[in-house]
Amino acid sequence: MGSFKGHALPGSFFLVAGIWWTGKHSLWHATRRNKNIGSTRLASRASQRRLEIIESSVVLFFSFVGMLAEQFAAGGPRLQLYDFAEKHWEYLMNWQHATMYLFFGLAATVNLIVHTTEVAPLALDRLMLAIAFFNEGFLFFYHLHGRSMLDVHVHQLLLFAIFGEAVVAFLEVFHRGNIILELLRCTLTVLQGSWFWQIGYVLYPPHGPEWDLNDHNNMMFITMCYSWHLAFAMLIVSALYCTVSCVVRSRLRRTPPMEMGLLKPRDPESEDEIL
Amino acid sequence: MGSFKGHALPGSFFLVAGIWWTGKHSLWHATRRNKNIGSTRLASRASQRRLEIIESSVVLFFSFVGMLAEQFAAGGPRLQLYDFAEKHWEYLMNWQHATMYLFFGLAATVNLIVHTTEVAPLALDRLMLAIAFFNEGFLFFYHLHGRSMLDVHVHQLLLFAIFGEAVVAFLEVFHRGNIILELLRCTLTVLQGSWFWQIGYVLYPPHGPEWDLNDHNNMMFITMCYSWHLAFAMLIVSALYCTVSCVVRSRLRRTPPMEMGLLKPRDPESEDEIL
Amino acid sequence: MGSFKGHALPGSFFLVAGIWWTGKHSLWHATRRNKNIGSTRLASRASQRRLEIIESSVVLFFSFVGMLAEQFAAGGPRLQLYDFAEKHWEYLMNWQHATMYLFFGLAATVNLIVHTTEVAPLALDRLMLAIAFFNEGFLFFYHLHGRSMLDVHVHQLLLFAIFGEAVVAFLEVFHRGNIILELLRCTLTVLQGSWFWQIGYVLYPPHGPEWDLNDHNNMMFITMCYSWHLAFAMLIVSALYCTVSCVVRSRLRRTPPMEMGLLKPRDPESEDEIL
Amino acid sequence: MGSFKGHALPGSFFLVAGIWWTGKHSLWHATRRNKNIGSTRLASRASQRRLEIIESSVVLFFSFVGMLAEQFAAGGPRLQLYDFAEKHWEYLMNWQHATMYLFFGLAATVNLIVHTTEVAPLALDRLMLAIAFFNEGFLFFYHLHGRSMLDVHVHQLLLFAIFGEAVVAFLEVFHRGNIILELLRCTLTVLQGSWFWQIGYVLYPPHGPEWDLNDHNNMMFITMCYSWHLAFAMLIVSALYCTVSCVVRSRLRRTPPMEMGLLKPRDPESEDEIL
């Protein structure tokens, strides 16, 4: 029903996504703040768009691969949903995971459309992200029936991060470009990633003894451990943010903006804040 | 206590309402965005108002018919609420359904008043819609006592869509004309409609075998199935939105706005965004 | 532990408060909308302030009387909280009701201070109202332990109105003068008032037979009945709003603003919307 | 597992913090409102920044001391987390308390960085405060397993104040400088402080008889008592706010702003409201 690798893999993805987003949003925020000293050299509107398209394509690719792997890897349902002979559902876990990937794939698709064409409103990408996270949390929420106490508990803690991200992404529909919300979303993504690893270590310890899944002291430790993961995620995100800010500033100071006179008075950078 | 038709009928209404709303809001959004190339020919303020009046009248008519049908159709209470002889309430289900229709009828009435007279503030239509959906969810919520597990579960899932719509409509009181919220409301309406059909198929399968209402695997499948309905609803709404956007744009491009000189400088279109 | 009169009395107060607020806010909204045709004759800034002071004084007076009545009426605790001889708390119900009155008294006091002096920020009156309603709901929430099913249910339904009012009043801190929120608050106040009467009739029927407090059909009827009370409250509030709007407009049309030339260009009316 | 002093100590800290914040925000609000009569003499932008830095340093110092005390005071874990010999977690309570202090320390660190450098966005201090309070409530929430009824209840009541503060601090990210939210946060901090003292008196009465922790009447009294603490906190905060307002105004009136001509037309005070 699960394995260490089955938790480490999504954990790694979310860790990478969180760190990537932190870098991206930090760079853009630094660009916006230092516009007057020519920061648009570092991240012009066109390069931002290109970055978004690459990111969406990568997410789309991996969610597609994920869906295929859940279906056709060893022990997968191979698109068969119901066993009519024995009258029971087949491989519901795999189907649920594939459904989660599907929603992240949809979010990536919408992101692609939003940033390549003009047809869709810009804020739609955040709404789709909110729906994808909500869907992930929704499926996890009804996933936990009849498991042991600690197993339920570690997954419930995960829901704080997931639903938190859904709420923050939804708020971003109305407050687009708010760096506070963006960094909070990055932090929760890193938290989710590192917590997936923690779940793997608790439920399927790769070496060392098994955890007693019904010990109340273990539950209390795990709760505290979640706080530590949150502190760790905040540390990572803020370190990265500071690094990017300082690098951008020092690079801008070293090379004065020569081409200043060539800048058009009304640059399209400001579109970024428009809904 | 229920039947396949009793779920398919409201399901069809919500499906039609969701698709209608998607078309309406997509058209108006396209009109607002392309105002500079003469899009007001396609949907002027007067025609928008006429559309709203027609929509409200139709909703009012159907909710009135629905109330009459619940009361006077075969096996209805015929306005009798309490059986004093045998001391019990009569046909509470029919009365509850009639109450739901009553609130949608009230919302339609207020919509009519708002769009024909000047007396009521514009945002009142969204508030009444939010209250109508909240009331529907509220009655469903206390509707579920003592049913079998799967029956309760499929109705609980319905509550996500209903309360979601209530919240989105309430947010629209403050963010009127936000296309993101409008499309989200349309999506949830389509979801609610298609899920009513699904409930009908699960609880009263018209052909084929009965579902085991206490099997945990069925519950897990149904949860995932809800996600699929959501994905399907998003697909429908976005396909419709794209079609309307493209058609509006291509029609505007084909026929250049000849009557441009006749346009008054301060057109009343902008009233639309005012609260 | 309770009586018919003990529910009818607060019910009447809330009904009167709801109707009074509806009239007040409708009048002011009509005044604001018709300012250009001289509506400030009907409700000038000074008269608004006078009205607020009178309202606050009345509320303060009644909450003071209420506290005294709970303490010193027949069967009250007379300020004695703990019976040291028999080691138990005295008359906790009376003390709880007095606490509820205390918070409404505090809200009225703050309202007085806000509208007579300049020292406090204007939005504080809505915050105190939100806290007073929250406190009422909070005490009711922990009030229900160990009662019969229907008794708990009718009080839980009351909480929807109470916490709803708390939330709406808190939103008004940020959206002061939004007529939609004001009318919603009025509606919920009327609902609360009429529901107190309903609770009195259900739990302590003054004539006629007792209700079976553990019958599930009664519970389902009561839930639906709550929706009807809500519809009734919306009807009352909207009828009153329309009447006031029409009266204001017709009076303004009959008597053209003669004194127009005497109006100062920058009238202090607009302060009303400032936070 | 707990003691009177263990609740009185954090209680005193929160009381002091609440009163300090009330004074600070009242002073700044009075400064902003009376800017035209030269109030910037009393609290210039530079002195505000100095105050913030001192405050953060003090909080940082005490949370560091708190962490050390939890680890190395008599009966502390001395940084040992797991007893491998007897296979159980060591001193989980101390570790949990240290974790709470850690988050307040992190919030203070970020506050320091925000107010000494330009690298971080201003609103980050409120977000970190919200996260610190959320983390405190989160750990308390999972802290209560298997205790007696009244013990659980008094800690649950505490959660209202803690999560309330988290929400208010999060709202301040978007509505910075809103005096209503600031005073509400101060009130909840004072409430939290005085309630810690109350918990100490209830669970570990320093003199007098023990409380019966399973008596329902005690629970009802305690709930009402919480309302009284809230009223008391509101009284303290509003008295302090009025005092500061009056003192500022009277001092400004006594000494007319001589140096008015020296003021630059565009003073940097207004930066305060910028996100």
TrEMBL record, chains A, B, C, D:
It comes from Sander lucioperca. Belongs to the TMEM45 family. GO terms for cellular component: membrane. It is a multi-pass membrane protein. InterPro entries: DUF716, TMEM45. The chain crosses the membrane at residues 6-23, 53-74, 94-114, 126-145, 157-174, 186-206, 226-248. Keywords: Membrane, Transmembrane, Transmembrane helix. This is Transmembrane protein 45a. It comes from the Eukaryota. It is found in: Membrane. Its main location: membrane.
